[in-house]
Structures are given as structure tokens and as C-alpha cells.
Amino acid sequence: MSAIELQHVTKSWGSTVAVRDVSFLVEEGAFVVLLGPSGCGKSTTLRMVAGLEDTARGRILIGGEDMTHVAPAQRHVSMVFQSYALFPHLDVRQNILFGLNVRKVPTAEKEARLKRVAELVGLAPLLDRKPAQLSGGQRQRVALARAIVAENPICLMDEPLSNLDAKLRHEMRVEIRALQQRLAMTVVYVTHDQAEAMSMADRIILMRDGDIEQEGTPDELYSAPATMFTAGFIGTPPMNLLALADGPQGAVIAGGDGPAVLESGGNGLTLGIRPEHVIVAAEAEGGIPARLTASDYLGADTVVTARIGAQTINARVPGHYAVSPDHEVRLTWAASALHVFDSQTGRRVDGHRARQNSG
Ligand SMILES: Nc1ncnc2c1ncn2[C@@H]1O[C@H](COP(=O)(O)OP(=O)(O)OP(=O)(O)O)[C@@H](O)[C@H]1O
Ligand SMILES: [Mg+2]
């Protein structure tokens, strides 16, 4: 039995369709990320699961039971919000125990749960502090502790780390993931940050304009994006997408003067290649001629930007790569690194073979 199941769930506000006929399963104990750009319907979907928004059409099952029209408190799910929503006048202990107090859980049990959770998230020495006396990361942990102390098997999180700096965000990612595994919780986690999704998720549900664009493991979305949208959303920087054109010996990169990159096809197709799979070579070595335009040094590697005709392509190369603007290079890649999409529909097209001279 799945922990959560959405069947054809739809939600509109006036003429805006926020979530359109969305269906998915979340297995028990899984960490599932709802990913997508701002406004695509992630929070609305999560809030419908929690019961904080009513569901216009479709069904929501939790633990196999139809919960579509059941009040939030009866759904037995915890929720962590981006804003933490801590009570400023209550100390950490009272903030964590707030829900249990409301539900009149006996004192001895409350204290035992508090002790366990406080140790788990590293808040034991801070129980007497008010939220104002805590760092952002500590506040985040209070919000997390409050969700965990309820001992609901399902926890819903809406961008819980977006108020934190990069270093803390990274630490909290690891902590949340470890906690989820230790407690065998089912988590649905909303973010617009693909790196966060890639590093935390068992499965990613990528949304776009209220629809599910693609669902799969992080590796499936990375190595076989079903659409140009997915290709352009996953990866740092995302996949290069280059329009192709008919050439005498197969498909060439439109506007370039290089050799064919595919044995067949051309007009109407788009080539996808990840920056980390592009190899920058000297002019003598063969490949696709390109003109360097900029570089972005990141420490371990450098993102080099180049132009093929009027199209831009990024390459991620190891170490420090000093670019002299307008320098001519050749770009190559392994045949297996290429992806092909239909430019009109945006959908992946399999079956085109890469030309050997591009690898
Ligand atoms: N209470 C509301 N009233 C009217 N429209 C709303 C309301 N809440 C959300 N919407 C609209 O529904 C769509 C989906 O919003 P939602 O908050 O689910 O997006 P999101 O994916 O969580 O975005 P973000 O990453 O910015 O948080 C948007 O077009 C938004 O403007
Ligand atoms: Mg949101």
C-alpha cells in the first residue's frame, strides 16, 4: 500500500488552473521531491495533501484511505513551512510541544518525546531559548522537531531550507535526509532548487504549469530527460540545447560550419549535451569549431561559454581554464552523451546515431 496517492487531482483559482489532473504515488518510507519553477503548483499540491486547500476534482488517498474531504488534523500528516511559523513568545520547548499540548498528551509521554526529538536534531541545550535567540538553522530545526515530535509517519515540507545560507542549507539537507531514513518517515518535499532535489530525493516529480512533466529517480531525470524542459531544468548548468539543421552528411548544428553531429535528421530537431560532457580541444584536434566568449571559474572546475554560429554552448572543464575571448577551439563529446529532441513538441526522440567524428 502506498503512503500517499493522488488520483486526477485538479485545483483552480478563478481562471487559473494551479494543478491540472495530477496523479502520483508516494511509497511508504520514500523521500519524494516536488520540483519545478515558481508558480508551477508545488505548494498547492502539497497543501491539498495536507488538507489546507480543498481539492476541486480528483481523490487523495493517505494510507489507502480516501482523505479528499477529511479535515487536516484527521489526516495525521506533519507539515514544515518555509517560514518556520514559530511562536515568538514561546521558548523552544513550548514551540516543539505546542501540538502535543493542544492534543492533551500526558506529561510523562510529552517529556519523553521531547527529550528524544531534541537530541535527534541537536536542540537539547537550547530548550529554554526564544526563537529570537536562535540562528536560522536552529529555528529550522525547531520547526523540524515540532513536525517529528507528532510522530506522524508522513511529513510534508514546503521549501524548508530556502531562508538559510548555502552552507547551512547543505548541512540541513544531509540532516533531514538522515533523519528521514532513521525514522523511516515518508516525506514529500517541495523545492524549486534542482540541486537540492537531486541530492535528497528517492524520486523526483518535476512539475510545469500545473502538470507533471516527468517523474523518476534523480538519475533517470539526469540521464534520460523525456523533454527539453526537463533537460533544461536539471543540471548545473543545465543541458545545452542546440538547434540542428540539415547538412550534406547528416544533422549539423544550425549556424555552425562544423561537421555533422548526427548521421540522420536535421531541421526540426534539437541536440542536447550536458556541459560536463563537452570536451574543449585545440583547433588541430577536430570536432565542432566554436569561439570562446566567457568563463566562470568555480574552484574545482570552470564553466566555459562558447558560440557555435549564433548559438551558445557551455562546457564544464576541470580546474582553472583561462579564456582568451574570441579564441577558436574545437568541441567534442562521446557519442553516448548526446540527446535528441523534437524542437516542436520538445519531446525526446530516440534512434538517431551520433556521427563518429564528433566523439
Ligand atoms: N490563494 C491563491 N489564490 C489565487 N491563486 C493562487 C493562490 N495560491 C496559488 N495561486 C496560483 O496558483 C499557481 C500555483 O501556485 P503555487 O503556490 O502552488 O506554486 P509553487 O510551485 O509553489 O511556486 P513557488 O515556487 O513560487 O512557491 C500560481 O499561478 C499561483 O499564482
Ligand atoms: Mg510554493
Provide keyphrases for this structure.
single chain; 359 residues; alpha+beta; Rossmann fold; OB fold (Dihydrolipoamide Acetyltransferase, E2P); 2 domains; 5-stranded antiparallel beta sheet; 19 strands; elongated; binds adenosine-5'-triphosphate; binds magnesium ion
What does this 3D model show about the protein?
With about 350 residues, the chain is an alpha+beta fold. The chain folds into two domains: about 5-230, 3-Layer(aba) Sandwich (Rossmann fold); about 240-359, Beta Barrel (OB fold (Dihydrolipoamide Acetyltransferase, E2P)), CATH 2.40.50.140. About 25% of the residues lie in helices and about 30% in strands. The protein has eight helices and 19 strands. It has helices at about 40-50, 90-100, 105-120, 135-150, 165-180, 195-200, 220-225, 230-235; strands spanning about 5-15, 15-25, 30-35, 55-60, 65, 75-80, 155-160, 185-190, 205-210, 210-215, 240-245, 250-255, 270-275, 280, 290-295, 300-310, 310-320, 330, 340. Strand 4 and strand 5 (about 65) form a beta hairpin. The longest helix is centred in the middle third of the chain and has 17 residues, at about 165-180. The relative contact order is 0.11. The model has no long low-confidence stretch (mean pLDDT about 90). Bound molecules: adenosine-5'-triphosphate and magnesium ion. Adenosine-5'-triphosphate binds near residues 39 and 43.
